[in-house]
Amino acid sequence: MHRRPAPEYPIIVTATVLFLALSYFASSRLPNWAGWENGPVENLQVAMLIAGGLLALRYAQTQEPAQLRTFWRLMAPLWVVLAARELSWGACFLPPYEMAADTGPEYSSTVQLWYKPVVPYLLSASLGILLFGFIRTGQVRFLALLWKRKAMPWAELACASICMMASGAAEGKLYVDLSLDVHWASQNFEELSETCAYALVLLAQWRVFLGSEVR
């Protein structure tokens, strides 16, 4: 019996567009502290990323065959990397180096962390090891199986990319004028867009899990 891997693509795309539109509308109406560093929205993001890693480890314990368990063990560290990035590689656990009345505390891994210069090298080495393990254990065959079962999370990942582009635009990285009245509204929209992106990546993982369960 075949199980539907996840919600249909049009639903995902429509929900993403609606969420971004509502986030844009709400960004200037939410309190300015909603999108602060270490604020409620960012803490929700970290919780989502940790949950994604724990789910991957859970799948690694329960799924068969052994190659599939290896796949999930390789995926779990990626969630750790995303969570560490969201925490500014640990700078968010330190007192802020700057505080603004409207945009809240500022943290900088470059300014505050003595070990920041080695983070890119450790990150590159870790991703290289994961990629080697992915290829060495033949996980490409699992991706081919997902493709055959039409369980590749294309819509989720594409929509997550759009959300991250919206977040970048709110941060001023894409040279797009969002016409928001105040700076802290842009910060709120940035964090809400990132939250949507992480939710979509969680949904992508769920699609892959269900696709691997099809018999």
Descriptive overview:
There is one protein chain. The chain is an all-alpha fold and 215 residues long. The protein has one domain (9-213). 67% of the residues lie in helices and 3% in strands. It is built from eight helices and two strands, in the order αααββααααα. A two-stranded antiparallel sheet has the order 1-2. Strand 1 and strand 2 (104-106) form a beta hairpin. Helix 1 (9-27) packs antiparallel against helix 8, helix 2 packs antiparallel against helix 3 (66-86) and helix 2 runs parallel beside helix 8 (183-213).
* Count of helical regions: 8
Count of strand segments: 2
Kindly report the spatial arrangement of strands forming the biggest sheet.
Answer: 1-2
Main pleated sheet: 2 strands, antiparallel
Q: What's the order of the H and E elements?
A: HHHEEHHHHH
Straight-line N-to-C gap: 6 Å
Average pLDDT rating: 90
| Helical fraction | 55-70%
Rounded radius of gyration (Å): 19 Å
What is the number of domains?
Answer: 1
Low-confidence stretches: 1-6
Q: Beta-strand percentage?
A: under 5%
Shape: globular
- Secondary-structure-based class equals mainly alpha
